[in-house]
Amino acid sequence: MATSVKLDDDLKSRIQHLADARHRSAHWIMREExxxxxxxxxxxxxxxxxxxxxxxxxxxxxNWLKTWGTDEEKEIPPYHG
Length: 81
Description:
Strand content: under 5%
Helix content: 55-70%
Number of helices: 3
Structural class: mainly alpha
Oligomer: single chain
Radius of gyration: 19 Å
Shape: elongated
Number of strands: 0
Order of helices and strands: HHH
């Protein structure tokens, strides 16, 4: 399934410049940027966990997510730690 995204001219130009410099497609650049952002967020979460011990169990998160978009949508469960 294809998805289209409308980019402003400055962002489109920046992405195209990076793509040209790396001999890659603009799509590849955007995908790599998203992966790096995800990685940095995961590392920050891991650091916060090591510092505070605060966490949620996987099953708690799955149960919470199952309520999204329903009439019984719940708030995020309280953290442990």
